């Protein structure tokens, strides 16, 4: 396999790494109860996912 013959400059390396930043957590709202939920996860409050009951949650007294 070929290897690089010259060192990359710091500017060139920094330009490549501009996209290596940490992004915020993707949050959405539950369609059933309106709670804030991580995307593509079952709602921990009501147990619904995409409008269907995924987990049976017992009502707290």
UniProtKB/TrEMBL annotation:
Entry GO MF terms: structural constituent of ribosome
Keyword Protein transport appears in the UniProt entry: no
Transmembrane stretches, start-end: none
Gene Ontology biological process terms in this record: translation
UniProt keywords, alphabetically: Ribonucleoprotein, Ribosomal protein
Record GO cellular component, one term: large ribosomal subunit
InterPro entries: Ribosomal_bL32 (IPR002677), Ribosomal_bL32_bact (IPR044957), Ribosomal_zn-bd (IPR011332)
Region (Disordered): 1-20
Taxonomy, superkingdom: Bacteria
Family: Belongs to the bacterial ribosomal protein bL32 family.
Full protein name: Large ribosomal subunit protein bL32
The organism of origin for this protein: Candidatus Onthomorpha intestinigallinarum
